[in-house]
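STRUCTURE:
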């Protein structure tokens, strides 16, 4: 009853806040749509630039590509200031060749505004720029244009440390590296994280954005955790533009890990295991830029060696024999795009977030040859699915639906599955004010491999409660946030505010149990030149229901990234 009364008070408070916000919105300027191709309607966010008049939507044969890359801070911004000069001094400005390698249209070919806008989105998605502007400029020859690309770097030096406190779990981390090494877009980093529950992870990694000056990416990782050592190697040719005909990936990983099981936020069981895996995939696509589909295949071989279960839950945990699994399957992929949107005041603060109004479908159907010590070998059909759509049900509102899942069969019955379904909603009340919501359902079940479990707490969306407080096999989470971009800017830092309510259910064997409600508010700090897309999130939340083992009163969480985002700064040409 106490939780119900508190929830009623929160609902009333939300009503008052929403009414006041709507009243204030009447005094703010109306939104301006940002055009794109295909045509689009109103945009539920503040545009990052003025609309381009239809008469200026030029197209023609490309004569030349002109690239200008700039430092983190302009001359006017660093005048008389020590920190901007220091930032520029420790940062190497991006080489223009890095930008040129991302251009998918060459001199002599036809280009229009929609391709220039696509290139702008792709450059922004690299994560090394604070600002990107791509334009077509007419020349003095009819039907001939120049492609003009102007970028401004963000600070990509990784140096420092920090602490976090989320749901009763404290931790610290240190990091050093550079995510735009020598201005080439490559990344080298070393990190170490430790937490109060005894978990630690250290890693050194290197990523090459343009391996051998091609569109191939390479990555190598060396890591050590509280469970053991790890090695990862990956070579990938991703989708680079909307009409890219091919993508492929090859990855090798060897890790010593552990599956941990929690009760009321405390680790009560663990199973160590060693995993060696080789993954590969190859996909082709064809069709118009905004309506493409294709086929391909994927193959994976995985070897798993298990240790003994430990902890109070050890008698309840299923530990299989050492297992080798070989999977091969065929993949269908389709992508249908209607428009694009730019937002800069909701998931991010100042950094342009690209959202595609699109539908995607990817289905892989194949079989696993599973060989487990003590059980023999069997062939298991397996289905993998990703489907999602983002659309505008009405002006200034975005709605996203997505689902991901895998199911495996043996002897005609399902022996393992995991599924995740999500609905997201974003509605602009005014230019710098939005309502955002999320409803997410997850379920897992496993009858042959390690016992599968989910957790729920402040670390994954139920703010006000301890991290991993609830555990089970079925999870439902609802989040509602009211977000403001205050317009306040201190030097290059922008300030945002947020009020939120979270409701979560956790159950086993399809029974979700009772709801747990948390509510609170927080501050968001963003800086495109220094942080790029991420924001610093500081939340103060209170649980409205009693749970044994949970901390009483208000809980503080300090971390990087929104509790949930609407798609992020993604480009649809790369799939999911």
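SEQUENCE:
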């Amino acid at each position: 009853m106490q939780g119900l009364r508190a929830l009623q008070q929160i609902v009333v408070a939300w009503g008052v806040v929403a009414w006041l916000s709507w009243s204030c919105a009447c005094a703010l300027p109306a939104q301006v749509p940002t055009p794109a191709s295909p045509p689009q309607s109103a945009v539920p966010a503040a545009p990052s630039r003025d609309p381009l008049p239809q008469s200026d939507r030029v197209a023609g044969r490309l004569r030349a590509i002109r690239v200008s890359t700039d430092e983190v801070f302009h001359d006017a911004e660093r005048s008389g200031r020590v920190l901007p000069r220091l930032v520029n001094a420790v940062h190497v400005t991006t080489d223009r060749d890095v930008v040129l390698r991302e251009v998918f249209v060459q001199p002599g070919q036809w280009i229009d505004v929609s391709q220039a806008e696509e290139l702008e989105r792709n450059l922004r998605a690299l994560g090394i720029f604070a600002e990107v502007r791509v334009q077509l400029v007419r020349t003095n020859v009819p039907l001939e244009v120049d492609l003009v690309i102007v970028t401004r770097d963000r600070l990509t030096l990784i140096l420092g440390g920090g602490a976090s406190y989320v749901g009763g779990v404290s931790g610290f981390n240190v990091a050093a590296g550079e995510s735009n090494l020598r201005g080439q877009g490559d990344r080298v980093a070393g990190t170490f994280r430790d937490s109060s529950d005894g978990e630690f992870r250290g890693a050194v990694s290197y990523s090459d954005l343009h391996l051998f000056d091609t569109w191939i990416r390479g990555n190598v990782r060396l890591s050590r955790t509280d469970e053991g050592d790890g090695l990862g190697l990956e070579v990938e040719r991703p989708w680079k533009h909307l009409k890219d005909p091919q993508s492929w990936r090859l990855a090798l990983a060897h890790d010593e890990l552990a599956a941990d099981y929690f009760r009321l936020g405390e680790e009560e069981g663990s199973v160590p295991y060693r995993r060696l895996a080789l993954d590969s995939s190859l996909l082709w696509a064809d069709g118009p830029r905004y309506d493409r589909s294709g086929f391909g295949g994927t193959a994976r071989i995985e070897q798993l060696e298990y240790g003994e279960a430990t902890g109070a839950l050890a008698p309840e945990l299923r530990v299989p024999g050492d297992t080798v699994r070989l999977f091969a399957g065929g993949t269908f992929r389709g992508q249908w795009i209607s428009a694009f949107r730019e937002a800069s005041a909701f998931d991010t603060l100042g950094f342009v977030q690209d959202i595609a109004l699109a539908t995607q479908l990817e289905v892989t159907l194949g079989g696993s040859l599973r060989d487990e010590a003590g059980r023999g070998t069997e062939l298991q059909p397996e289905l993998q699915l990703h489907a999602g759509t983002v659309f505008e049900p009405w002006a200034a509102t975005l709605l996203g639906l997505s689902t991901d899942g895998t199911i495996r069969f043996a002897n005609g019955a399902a022996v393992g599955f995991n599924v995740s379904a999500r609905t997201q909603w974003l509605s602009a009340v005014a230019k710098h004010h939005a309502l955002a919501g999320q409803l997410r359902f997850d379920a897992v079940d496993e009858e042959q491999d390690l016992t599968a479990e989910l957790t729920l707490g402040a670390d994954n969306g139920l703010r006000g409660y301890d991290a991993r407080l609830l555990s089970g096999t079925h999870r439902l989470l609802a989040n509602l946030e009211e977000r403001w971009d205050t317009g306040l800017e201190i030097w290059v830092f922008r300030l945002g505010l947020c009020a939120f309510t979270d409701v979560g259910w956790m159950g086993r064997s399809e029974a979700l149990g009772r709801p747990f409600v948390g509510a609170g508010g927080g501050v968001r700090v963003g800086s495109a030149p220094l942080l790029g897309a991420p924001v610093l999130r500081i939340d103060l939340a209170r649980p409205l229901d009693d749970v044994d083992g949970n901390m009483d009163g208000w809980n503080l969480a300090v971390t990087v990234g929104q509790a949930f985002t609407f798609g992020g700064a993604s480009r649809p040409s790369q799939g999911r």
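REMARK: Residues 1-55, 568-576 have pLDDT under 50 and may be disordered.
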